[in-house]
């Protein structure tokens, strides 16, 4: 939607080349400091789908790498 001029998006930092490829203009957020928290919830009364298992596995790897 941002690329079509219909909204804004907060995304990880893009290079000028990446921004141009998406057709967007970037503005660096300086204040306040941007922080985030990730929370996940899933059903436990049945087995997770194959896609959910892959997602959880990839998140575990990514979060471990950030320690």
Automatic annotation (TrEMBL):
Superkingdom of origin organism: Bacteria
Pfam families recorded: LysR_substrate
Ranges for domain LysR substrate-binding: 1-60
Gene3D superfamilies named among the record's database cross-references: Periplasmic binding protein-like II
Leader peptide range in chain numbering: none
The protein's name in its UniProt record: LysR family transcriptional regulator substrate-binding protein
Organism field: Nocardia abscessus
């Amino acid at each position: 939607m941002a690329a079509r001029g219909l909204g804004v998006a907060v995304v990880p930092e893009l290079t000028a080349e990446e921004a141009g490829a998406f057709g967007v203009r970037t503005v660096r957020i300086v204040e306040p400091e941007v922080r985030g928290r990730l929370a996940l919830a899933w059903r436990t009364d049945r087995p997770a789908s194959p896609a959910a298992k892959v997602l959880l596995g990839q998140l575990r790897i990514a979060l471990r790498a950030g320690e």
